[in-house]
Amino acid sequence: MTNSIAELEDANCILVIGSNTNENHPVIAARIKRAVRFRGADLIVVDPRRQDLVKFAKLYLRQIPGTDIALLNAMMHVIIRDNLYDAAYVAERTENFEALKETVAAYTPERAERITGIPARDIEAAARMYAQAKVASIVYCMGITQHTVGTDNVKALANLAMLCGNVGVWGGGVNPLRGQNNVQGACDMGGLPNVFSGYQPVTDEAARKKMEAAWGVSNLPAWVGKTMTEMLPAIHAGEMKALYIIGENPALSDADAHHAIQAMQKLELLVVQDIFLTETGKLAHVVLPAASFAEKDGTFSNTERRVARVRRCIPPLPGTKPDWQIICELSTRMGYPMRYASPEEIFEEIRTVTPSYAGITYQRLEAGGIQWPCPTEEHPGTVFLHKDRFARGLGMFFPVEHKDPAEMPDEEFPLYLTTGRLLYHYHTGTMSRRAPGLVEKAPECRVELAAADAARLGIAEGDTVRVRSRRGEITARATISPKAVAGTVFLPFHFAEAAANKLTNAALDPVCKIPEFKVCAVQVTKA
Amino acid sequence: MAEPTLTLNGRTVAFQPGQTILEVAQGAGVYIPTLCYMKDTLPTGSCRVCVVEVEGARTLLPACATQAAANQVIQTESPRVAAARRMVLELALASGNHNCLICEANGECELQALAYRYQVPTPAFAAPPDTPYYFEDNNSMIVRDFSKCIMCGRCVRGCTERQVNDAIAIGYRGSHNKIVAKADKTYIESDCVFCGECVQSCPVGALLDKNAIGQGRSWERTTVRTVCPYCGVGCQLEVHVKDDRILKVTGADAVPNEGRLCVKGRFGWHFVHHPDRLTTPLLRKNGELTPVSWDEALDYVAARLTEIKAKYGPGQIGGWCSARITNEENYLMQKFMRAVLGTNHVDHCARL
Fold it and tell me: At residue B128, does pLDDT exceed 90?
């Protein structure tokens, strides 16, 4: 997030797009709903499903899945056409405005209506509502990113926010909600193929030299590695032989999961480190039992870049070890001794090589979390980014064009499938499906259908249905829900016995290599 | 312009216009008891336990719902105030069956604490012992015991104002007042999403986390502040522990959640103690995953990684960090992959 969670209550307009906030980030949804109810904020919800947050919205725009760019460009079209943009901000703080203007000129609300299915008058109203708010915030999630145009979707949101002067101000911003407790931290710490901790590129010689000196090694690889979504095809192609996986369950979470499982079965060595024997662990050569979050010390970094202490509540379950100790013991066995007495000692090393974390200490964290960048021990942390100037100097408009999703409905597979989470479960369910209360509320996978589609297909509430795509099929019971809009079915991906990702399309965004989980074509029949 | 001042128990205190008497007192370190008052919600002044004596006012005034005014002269513990509070507490105690002996809230009950502070005797007008009260225990998360309910309304404001879930309301009229969920159904049959805000809001033992019932008194538990293991909001948790077992989780009053949690954060921690937890390394022998010692497992992994690196080169090895493990662990994992194995095939599930 460019801005902080608490700031949402001070936004005059909030545009929620591609985020089912009320179910996936309920505590952030509470802030949004408070802004609407107690501060009079205008809420715009854009989503293929009529999600719960719509009850609080002034405007609900239902787009055809995968058409966000057309909508956003048309909103910018209206804002520029009617001179509603922040001309002073655009002049002082941004560049490449003319190119944006040229691109969005072609996206009239009428043309966008044909692409998105959203009435032109609603697009006009949304544009005015967003542009005329004193401060407007954009909140998005995987509904924006999990597309073959995911990167372009994000650029379109950034364009819209900059156009209206909403970046670098309190209450505004472009705010992705991170879906997993420490996904932000995993990125910050260099758990990515192209960067060390603090986003220092592996291709930068100075960064490599710095790490080599800190780590006492030479010849760190200078090439950019593969993403997870690229590693699996590489295994298929015989270009990867060993994989060491910590706390991930790709056999269930990867697009086209069947293909992912086949890949892992080809490996000469698959090591899986987890707290349970997951679907992925069952394929492994070695399984290492890790301690849970409640059994160790450390830090997590949340979606607003806030680093906070994780504290040991109970000792590790006998037989398990915290992940950091397992890595240390393995490394030491391989001739590179890692002998840290505590996570704090590791954190001290992180600080010395990661400028954005340099000012954070365990002692400071006793008083509460600190938001990076925090370059020195005197620095209070950064509540919102890009104040007064962008990280790169001027904010750059990157005009983008609408492209259809990689797979569109056709005669054989006439329905859109979109996937996501339920309030009561989390990711592949390894944690949430072991809590009695959560299972009580959401015991099984349900295929969510609109009443119109259900009637046409002769499906009643609770019927077992077969959902089939070009890649696989699953069976599960149907639920006819007012959240669903005709033409689109929804599946949660928590349930191994009805794994939604047997159906999803592994087509990737060309830049960030994210699979198109949010759109594929399926056929639904009564089983 | 100088800040306005008022007199609080004989002391001159400055305040900001718009502050309530309660806020001014809290700022000045003067204790005023409350029951229905709750942070981040609109004051209702309904319980009357925070009443104070303001010179010139006809009646005692609720400090939580009365704005401070310049030159007010306020007494927070005068005999008149104490007598009124004693009466309010006696009525609250009379309105149910407040048996502290087996009450889950014993030791952290705000009504019990105030009854002690004001030495409130057994209520003179208690309901007869056979008075029936609503009791609900038909789900695995929340128990509702209205024999303890004092109708302070905090659960309703927690639900509608702090979480804005709008699942419960005050229903019926007069002495029939009762907290209701969707046309007076049980929680599990209603629109309740089990965020548990109502349980955390309850000052007494009327709304309970079912997991913790009978498992230990408040003074037998320790609480540890940590971060929720579910989504990326990073809610701060208080984990309540006894004998190395988690009994319950509550929201910590800290950024970013300020006490709020969702159903997963509050009721989703059972995986920690689940019998399915792995407790020994496993090594595939003759096609079967077989329990082995840590030494055997780690020696095997180290030897195989060394062999594969030598045979195929570092570019044939990949490692996945995790959004579930700590920063320290992610850092070490990428360091291990890069510095020890010599590969940049490092990633995690950010895209999934």
Answer: no
Contact B264 A438 (CB under 8 A): yes
Give the closest of B254, B324, B340 to A336, CB-based. Answer: B340
Q: In chain A, what residues touch B161 (CB-CB under 8 Å)?
A: 34, 37-38
CA A369-A327-A349 angle, 5° bins: 45
CATH 3.30.70.20 fits B132-273, yes or no: yes
Q: Which pLDDT score, from 0 to 100, does residue B351 have?
A: 76
Say yes or no to pLDDT of B1 above 70.
Answer: no
Which chain B residues are Cβ-neighbours of A316 within 8 angstroms? none
Contact A472, A259 (CB under 8 A): no
The beta-strand segments (E) located in B182-331 are 207-209, 222-227, 236-242, 245-251, 282-285, 288-291, 317-320
Render pLDDT for A444-498 as a digit per residue (tens, 0 to 9): 999 999 999 999 999 999 999 999 999 999 999 999 999 999 999 999 999 999 9
Question: Is B332 in the A-facing interface, judged by CB distances under 8 Å?
Answer: yes
Token pair 């950064």: residue:
A382
Mean pLDDT of chain A: 96
Look at the domain B5-77 and name its fold. Ubiquitin-like (UB roll) (3.10.20)
Alpha carbons A112 and A115: distance in angstroms, whole number = 5
| ipTM confidence score | 0.95
Q: Which domain holds residue A156?
A: 5-177
End-to-end CA distance of chain B: 57
Mark whether A131 and A192 lie in a shared domain: no
The number of domains in chain A is 3
Rounded to a whole number of angstroms, the distance from the CA of B342 to the nearest CA of chain A is 6
Same domain, A152 and A49: yes
> Is residue A454, in this structure, part of any structural domain at all?
yes
Q: Name chain B contacts of A284, Cβ cutoff 8 Å.
A: 282, 284, 289
pLDDT digits (tens, 9 = 90+) for A179-198: 999 999 999 999 999 999 99
Q: Is residue A80 part of a domain?
A: yes
Last residue of a domain, one of A303, A338, A371: A371
Range(s) within chain B of domains with CATH label 3.30.70.20: 132-273
Confidence of residue B349 (pLDDT cuts 50, 70, 90): confident
pLDDT digits (tens, 9 = 90+) for A225-253: 999 999 999 999 999 999 999 998 888 88
Question: Is A496 among the domain residues?
Answer: yes
3-class DSSP state for residue A134?
coil
Range(s) for CATH 3.10.20.740 in chain B? 5-77
Q: What is the mean pLDDT of residues B243-261?
A: 97
Please provide residue A516's backbone torsions phi and psi, each rounded to the nearest 5 degrees.
Answer: -85, 70
Token readout for A27 is 């505590």
Q: Domain for residue A385, yes or no? A: no
Closest CA in chain B for residue A195: B344
Q: What stretches of A108-180 adopt beta strand conformation (E)?
A: 136-140, 174-176
* CATH number for A25: 3.40.228.10
Which residues between 176 and 195 in chain B have a beta carbon less than 8 angstroms from any beta carbon of chain A? Answer: 188, 193-195
DSSP B18-34: T-BHHHHHHHTT-----
- What's the token pair of residue A76? 């910018």
- How many angstroms separate the CA atoms of B288 and A350, rounded? 39
Calculate mean pLDDT across residues B168-188. Answer: 94
- Put simply, whether the predicted model's pTM sits higher than 0.90 gets the answer yes
Closest residue in chain A to residue B329, using alpha carbons only: A324
Residues A209 and A331 in one domain: yes
Is the domain of A21 the same as that of A60? yes
- B322 close to A (CB below 8 A): yes
> Are residues A215 and A351 both part of a single domain?
yes
- Chain A closest-CA separation from residue B146 CA (Å): 22
Question: Hey, of B208, B227, B336, which one would you mutate to test binding to chain A, going by the most A CBs within 10 A of its CB?
Answer: B227
pLDDT tens for residues A394-444?
999 999 999 999 999 999 999 999 999 999 999 989 999 999 999 999 999
Q: Are residues A51 and A133 in the same domain?
A: yes
